[in-house]
Amino acid sequence: MDHPGAALIAPPKPPKIQPLNTADLQLIEQVREELVARGINPPNWREADAEKRRRFFDEVRSILIALGENRSGVNRNAQIITDALSGVGLLDQLLRDPYVEEIFVRNGEVAVEYDGSFYHLGKLADDSYFENLAVHVADQGGATLRGDRPAVLIDLPGGERFTAIVPRLSTEGTAINIRTFGRRVRTLEEMEQSGTFGRVSPTALDILKSAREEGPANSKPGLAQRISALQETPDRFLAWMVSTLAGSLMIAGEMGSGKTTLLNALSGFLPTSAPVAALETFRELEIQHPFLLRAVAPAELSQGTPGVTLDWVLNVIYTRMNPAAVLVGEVVGNEALQFLKAACLGRKALTTIHGGTVEEALMRLEQLALASAPELGLAAVRSMVAMGLDVVALMGRINRSGRVQRTLKAVATIQGLDGNGNYCLKYLYRAEGDEDIPIFEQAYRQMEKLG
User: Fold this and answer.
1) Residue 183 predicted with pLDDT over 50
2) CA distance 57 to 29
3) Distance separating alpha carbons of residues 179 and 160, to the nearest angstrom
4) Which residue, among 102, 114, 70, 93, has the nearest Cα to 18 in the 3D structure?
5) CA distance 163 to 106
6) How far apart are the C-alpha atoms of 136 and 130, rounded to whole Å?
7) pLDDT at 315 (0 to 100)
8) Residue 9 falls inside a structural domain
């Protein structure tokens, strides 16, 4: 840990880490087998004696030399293998950097939150490497990451918080988060210089500029350009809201009204500079995002059936895996309360729900939340809805000349509760609207206040 009074100048970007290739993984296994043959056990990851770790490193190094390893690469490979067998593998290199605040792994892709900024480091190893790593960490911590326990939450020896979800619960490969605490004490002067105490009032244009994609030349157009190309219609407003993560959104409607279709379309506007999580009871969402945590779990389990439910997984993800946005395919059961808790903790949450009107959809959300925790009472749940949920979009089915057309019927913002405890709804759009419905220029200004 740094001295509290020492001012550090942060490097502009996190360190580059050389990915592990197939030969590296084979070498790790080869050395592991040789250590077993020699009766040498790796030091426990909670081992505080630096001398024991140094001796183990020397043993690994000697094995590599005996195997004919090129001397120029011996130290690098010895460190990789030592980390793999006694720490958190390749990720130990990041844990040694005091500016790394959180580590994200998604299907072999690694990213970090580094001194307040999110950076993609690329694919550093096959997913199997990180799945084995997660199992190893669980074993070292006295936990299980197998069978009906596909997630683990463990505190690492240095105080870091390690969370992992593995297949088949995670459908997009192994997902790992390591959150660090107190590894660098910042002075009040540093916080002041970084703008911590300055007044912040970003405009819609400022936020959209920050949402421009920084990807390869063949990546999809930036979000700002895509939104600018849309017409002055409700879809432009919703795309703006999702791209800036300005608020939490619930898409309501009757069965077959196009709720999931709209959520899928809007997911294409999620900023790529932020980690996203998607949860479903069965795979239905089609989300194209470079850093996606995806889980599929049942809403309920029969008594005595091993496994985890959607509300349990949702709780783990929003409390431990730090997604900027959480997408729940459809709220149908106990996960309704977890969805509201996530939204009330500052997460931007998006979901769909059945309901013929905006008011009916809000009532159904209340009923589902109360079913899982009736002791809360309607007033408390309604307060959570009003605090956590910002916008409700209503989809509908309209018969026109014998053909069903799916259409957006309304967009409403929730502006708290009135004196009687009822929702204050402000309709920004109605397909069959009245003359006094505000135009979308006013809606944009209103949504800026939600950011």
Assistant:
1) yes
2) 16
3) 6
4) 93
5) 12
6) 10
7) 92
8) no
The three-state secondary structure class of 327 is: strand
Residue 58 within a domain:
yes
The β-bridge partners of 151 are 165
Range of 153's domain?
Answer: 22-179
**What is each CA distance from 47 to 68, 156, 186, 432, in whole angstroms?**
30, 11, 28, 68
Within a domain: residue 2?
no
CA distances from 299 to 88, 150, 284 (A): 33, 16, 15
Number of domain units in the chain: 2
Cα separation, 48 vs 28, whole angstroms: 23
CATH code of residue 81: 3.30.450.90
Give me the count of residues in the chain: 451
CB 290 within 8 Å of CB 309: no
User: Is residue 81 within 8 Å of residue 62, measured between CB atoms?
Assistant: no
In angstroms, how far is the first alpha carbon of the chain from the final one? Answer: 34
Predicted confidence (pLDDT) per residue in 26-77, tens digit: 999 899 899 999 999 888 777 767 888 889 999 999 999 998 887 778 988 8
Last residue of a domain, one of 179, 213, 245: 179
395 shares a domain with 303:
yes
Mean pLDDT of the chain: 84
What does the pLDDT read at residue 86?
A: 81
CA distance 370 to 383: 12
Tens digits of residue pLDDT in 235-282: 888 988 898 898 999 999 999 899 999 999 999 999 888 899 999 988
- From residue 433, alpha-carbon distances to 6, 232, 236 in Å are 61, 16, 18
User: Residues 380, 244: one domain?
Assistant: yes
At position 213, the amino acid (one-letter code) is E
User: Do 265 and 411 belong together in one domain?
Assistant: yes
Torsion sign, CA atoms 95, 101, 107, 108: negative
Q: Are residues 158 and 303 in the same domain?
A: no
